[in-house]
Amino acid sequence: MTFDQAIADSAQFSKRHLLLGNGFSIACRADIFHYGSLFGQADFSAVPEVEAVFQSLGTEDFEVAIRALESASRILPAYVPTGAAAGAKMVQHAAALKEILVATIAGNHPNIPPDIPDDKFWACRRFLANFLAQDGQVFTLNYDLLLYWTLMHDDMPFDAPIPLATNDGFGNDEDEPDADYVVWQGETGAHNAKIHFLHGALHLFDSGTELKKYTWIRKGKPLVEQAREAINANAYPLFVAEGTSAQKKTKIRHNAYLYQGFKQLTANAVQGRHCFFIFGHSLAANDDHILVRLARGRFPKLYVGIYGDPTAPENRQIMSRASALAHQRHDRWPLDVSFYDAVSANVWGA
Known about the structure:
The chain has about 350 residues and is α/β, with parallel strands linked by helices. It has 16 helices and ten strands. The radius of gyration is 20 Å and the shape is globular.
């Protein structure tokens, strides 16, 4: 069906929620946010061996390479009793790949919102209004700033602006209310948040005592520039780029902000009158920690975006994985899955 048909069909439910994957960012700037583009821009000079890892695996996906290195480090001792040093090196290189991924995204990210045409932001706000103007919530697995920029881009020259709920759970630091950053307000204070960065983001930094969100309006400096400066000083943003779903879940459980977002997803998934939309995600197994919450939920309807020919092998895989989620449901709470044409959503404009 078209996206508009899916939205019309979902009117039967009290709330609709949205889960975003990397396809959301690729749809805006494929030259930057596609894994292949990131791979081409990455600097592997500090760990040149990892390029051979990508080549051996036939991939440019950082998470696949990270997962392979971490898995190999665990099984190597069973085959090479003297391979402890090599295993340790694989673990080090996996960690280095995570930092390279963050640095590459920051290094190639658009510098400021005006680098993206206003029309794209306004189109995206129209898309998000189907959720954030209807008391729904948005959960994103992306690290970049596009969603945040869109939410802040509210200077529309229209007679009828597009209002969106933008509460992400951050506010003034009670000890330093005039600081050039805002901090996460904790589980209780962030209970009404509508925006959740489930895997962290470039503008979220863990200082050890609190989670800070860098802002442009407080510091007068582009967020990407702030992130680059922090990374150059060896301070990395809150970022979940672990190899496997289990590793991602472990990191999420050990961070209060990430775990709160995870719990919000779970809480909405068990609501019998809600529905979920997925845009830009392949439903791959490395995000099963998120997908299993949908499979074990009680919401009755899932709409999954399909990009391009639905008979293409990759889309058949997505459809099969979506059907598998439905098969995992308890008989008392069946899940109906429908597919919509992702292009028809016009997320960043026609």
